[in-house]
Design goal:
Blueprint lengths: L6 H15 L6 H4 L8 H20 L6 H20 L5
Length: 90
Amino acid sequence: MTKKPDCVSAMKNLITEVREEFPFTTPEANICGISCVGCPKKLLEIVDTELCDWETKLNNNVVPKLGEISKLAKLCKNVRRGLKRNGLVD
């Protein structure tokens, strides 16, 4: 049986997964296409802001609560759905 990660590790893992999967480095011209559903550029900006905020908090030894991890995960899940509608993630 595997041991569950602590809250700091769980938040770091979530941030890493999102940074790897979301197209943060894609040029704006490729993000904003002809048909834009839900403005993927703004969605990415919202997630990037939250991730940067948590990276700063983690660097300052702030321990996230389970609810905060869930909240960020839910935001990322909803944004991923919007990015999928625009063909930016699989």
